[in-house]
Amino acid sequence: MSISKKQKRKKFEDTIGAIYSIAIYTILYIPVVVMMIFSFNNQRYNYYWNGFTTQWYSKLFTNSAVIGSLWYSIVIAVLATVISVAIGTIGALGLKKYEFRGKKFINNMLYIPIIVPEIVMAVALLIIFMKIGLALGMGTILIGHCTFCIPYAVVTIKGRISGDGYSLEEASMDLGANRIQTFLNVTLPSIMPGVMSAAFLSFTLSIDDVVMSNMLAGAKNSTLPVLILSMNKSGVTPDVNALTTIMILVIVLAMILNNLIKYALKKRNKAEATI
Amino acid sequence: MKKIISILLTMVLIMGLFTGCGGTKTGSTVESGKAAPSTELNIYMWQQYISDDLIAKFEKENNAKVNLSYMSDNADAITKLTAGGGQEYDLIMTCDAYMESLVEGGYVEKINFENIPNASNINEAYWTAKEYCVPYLMNYIYVVYNKDTSPVEIKSYNDLINPALKGQIATIDGARNLFPIALVALGYDPNSTDEKEIAEAYEWLVKYNENVVAYGNAEQNLTNGTASVAFTYDGNASWAMSELGDKNNLVIADFEKDPVQLGFDLYVVPKGAKHVDLAEKFLNYITDPKVMAANLIEYPYSCPNDAAVEAASDAYKNDPARDFDYKQNVFFQEDVGEAITIYNDYYQKLKVGE
Amino acid sequence: MNNKNILKRKMTLPALAMAGPVSLWMILFVTLPMLYIIYISFMSRGVFGDVVYEFSLESYETLLDATYFKVIVKSIKAALITTGLCLLIGYPFAYYIAKKPKEVASRLIMLIMIPFWTNSLMRLNSWLLLFQTSGPVNKVLLSTGFIDTPMSFVYTDGLVLVGMITTMLPFAVLPMYSSIEKLSNSLLEASADLGASRRTTFFNITLPLTFPGIFSSIILVFIPSLGIYTVTDMLGGGKVLYIGNIIKNQFGAIRNWPLGAALSVLLIVITGLLIFIYTRFANIEDMEVV
Questions:
Q1: What DSSP assignment string belongs to C19-70?
Q2: C208 class by beta-carbon count within 10 Å (0-12 exposed, 13-18 middle, 19+ buried)
Q3: How close, in Å, is residue C75 to chain A by CA atoms?
Q4: Interface partners of B (3+ CB pairs, < 8 Å)?
Q5: What's the pLDDT tens digit per position in B149-207?
Q6: In a domain, B19, yes or no
Q7: C67-282 adopts what CATH topology?
Q8: In the complex, which subunits touch C with 3 or more CB pairs below 8 angstroms?
Q9: Which residues of A touch C218 (CB under 8 A)?
Q10: B81 plus B94 within the same structural domain
Q11: Are C251 and C257 in contact (CB under 8 A)?
Q12: Does residue A28 lie within any of the structural domains?
């Protein structure tokens, strides 16, 4: 009798959890939906709703500046994510496992980019780059982004691996695997949720960053957030909304496609298994 | 072997990133004048301030690529000019108040006006630091209000602190925009350096602040009904009025004696600019009355180029945002030197609140 | 603990390979810039607010003004509220996701992040468009007769709070998810089997074991909340300045780099102090990896 009570309770909790989560997703997505709706706004700047039009979508295909900066932002974000998560993951593991002189110092340094307002770091990096004569451009923006992404990655992964023991890894090495094999096949999979969180976080931080990208940019390209920031004085034109809408649709489509493929593969495997 | 090659490739890639992505080697001018003309022009200016078509035409005529980067604040341009990054650009836009210090500090190049004959079209009265800059567009900073919803008919700055306007004013921000109107309202010089006067202006602004609903994006709040009064630029007021079209019930405050601020956006050539020849060609291009007149169709801001204003469309000449009769009653933003720290301190006090 | 003692032997190559890159990066791109910032906080201000390399304590003297103290207190209060709410709202959410199978969870996490790949300024503007006097919310309220005249939701503290929470929530959820996810189900089942009530299980097992994640969330939410300025600028109408605005202004419109540097040093000291007190009080080892 108590078993079905437990099941009932679990179901109840699941439903509450689902409702709660849907509520939160709704609140998070309301601004996005509003943005998508206003991509059809018949007004030069999005001040208020003024009628329906699709002109912004056709304008997008003639305005290479907006699309160009989106592409630039994505490239930078991907590179920054890869670099930051790589350095951050092995860094977090290394900082946990090994003792070395200056370890406390590095640990404290990691918190600095999180504590210090970004504008301060950006200004300091700018001065240093100027002093060593480094030309501003994608490289300098990348350095800036990684500098705040790496600490976020490390903190996220630290929260994941805290308290973990090394028994699995030791077992793996006892069985003959070398360090790299152990890392790739044992350690990494077990901390994958943390690595994934760190990757998402880094990508998000980089693609929406405006302060570093503004200060350390070269003359030839701007990232999309910097472009939008400079529109703030007069008003953001709805073609940016249109671009964002397309972006989101592409992502959602990719997710659905991914699910469909996985589902189809599963079904096929099941069918083959029963033959 | 493979490993070494891949390591080398990675290093080359990283170095390529560091030298700035996407840059092609461009020819730049050499003093002798015999070198190949530049094929690239890097400009740093406000967004939504120049017509894309005109840029495209310039690119075609000169067989060059124009790279536009945009600033979000005057401070961005000053940082580029003074702290670093300025030499990446050939033209940077800044405003007249900074020219004295920029010239003194050696941050800008002298402009060779022999290559810019069209510059003669610009009204002398609107041109500070004549050898170092070319004025582009100008802004009257005045008050517009919704005649149907505003509880007060505004005829002077002092009307703005009328308690009936509580939460009704949308205003632009900036210490050098706000303090001058307070100083004028109190009868002082808008570019005062006297601490006592500035302190009184601060008290005036505290009352003004009570009436302010939001700083920034004044015309957005004026048109969507959040505010009934706006202290803003004439160009932005023009947008608001044309957006409202037939429903336009915005009027310019009919000031009786208070002067309004007239500010200028001008192009300077930063020290170390690499494509000065193209920069000069560009400056000559945009001071051409026909070119600027076409620009004014898309961006109907006030313009110091008299010939261009003459050649402008009728819609521009009849723009209601510029239909006021005290255009000669203006003051300019001057460099206040050390006193800027007094302004900044009081400005922060104002914003931090009690 | 024996495991760690064994590994504390000097193992230079693996240590270098793993902790080396991050250490190098931190030294080059964090320590050096910060040293420069501390250095210029002791310099004087030039005509353009840039740095004139003459020693001067005037930046620190300026800091003694009561205005800055007020701003810091206000900012800390606002950041604390934001952090508290993000934790309260985020923990159950993180728990729900963490209990799902890994594939589902990763998709759910991605769903959280997608709004943040759109531009934050535009998202903030969307709240304005929604809640402004002529916006849809007011229109609905008016048409249903709920209110007579349009309410002004925009440029209020409430809307700023909504903006802050929606901006900071992923930074709270992600670390907590990561920590809750590795909480083994068998532990919870064992606790229940031993007769503990759900509440006891939660407070004595779940919460303590997920504390590293909570701690990371606090760090990742509270500290940026202190320095953020876009939300108050857009949703608050720029009427109130927090410490983030003030620092940004020193490098921007107000132009006083040495003062900005001094303010940043002050912020680091205060935050460092708060973290220090907190870790002592909560007895966490996680500030430095043990």
A1: HHHHHHHHIIIIIHHHHHHHHHHTEEE-TTS-EEEEE--HHHHHHTSHHHHH
A2: exposed
A3: 13
A4: A, C
A5: 888 899 999 999 999 999 899 999 888 899 999 999 999 999 999 999 999 999 999 99
A6: no
A7: MetI-like fold (1.10.3720)
A8: A, B
A9: none
A10: yes
A11: yes
A12: no
